[in-house]
Design goal:
Length: 87
């Protein structure tokens, strides 16, 4: 594994929740990008564990629905949706 890889989780606060991608688990398969109903995921400049790009949400578009988390075969995405008045 190249020494310059940064495998620390990347957390982004989105309007309706919190999106975290774990580059150490992401193989860059793109299922999350394909299945996102809002088309709000894009390839990141951060490389995953296999040297392929990880993903990140497009600013302000993610609705924290969790579809990406559900389709990720490597459990590399975690979405926490805000509840009640927070959302």
């Amino acid at each position: 594994m190249p020494e310059d890889l940064d495998l620390e989780p990347r957390t982004v606060e989105v309007p309706k929740g919190v999106f975290t991608v774990f580059p150490g688990l992401c193989k860059g398969c793109g299922l999350c990008i394909t299945k996102c109903p809002k088309q709000c995921l894009k390839w990141s400049d951060v490389l995953g564990v296999y040297g392929t790009p990880a993903v990140e949400p497009v600013d302000g578009v993610c609705i924290a629905c969790g579809v990406c988390e559900g389709v990720c075969p490597d459990c590399a995405i975690r979405v926490i949706r805000k509840r009640g008045k927070e959302a």
